[in-house]
Amino acid sequence: MKIDLSSLAPREAHDLLTSAIIPRPIAWVSTVNKNGDVNLAPFSFFTGVQWYPPVIAFSVVNREDGSKKDTVVNIEQIPEFVVHSVSVDLLMPMEASAQRIPIGRDIQEISGIHLIASDIVIPPRICEAAVAFECSLEKIITVNEGANAGNLILGRVKVLHTDDTLIENGREIDWAKLNALGRLSGNRYCEIRDVIRSETN
Ligand SMILES: Cc1cc2nc3c(=O)[nH]c(=O)nc-3n(C[C@H](O)[C@H](O)[C@H](O)COP(=O)(O)O)c2cc1C
Question: Is residue 90 a contact partner of residue 112, using CB atoms and an 8 Å limit?
Answer without folding.
Answer: yes
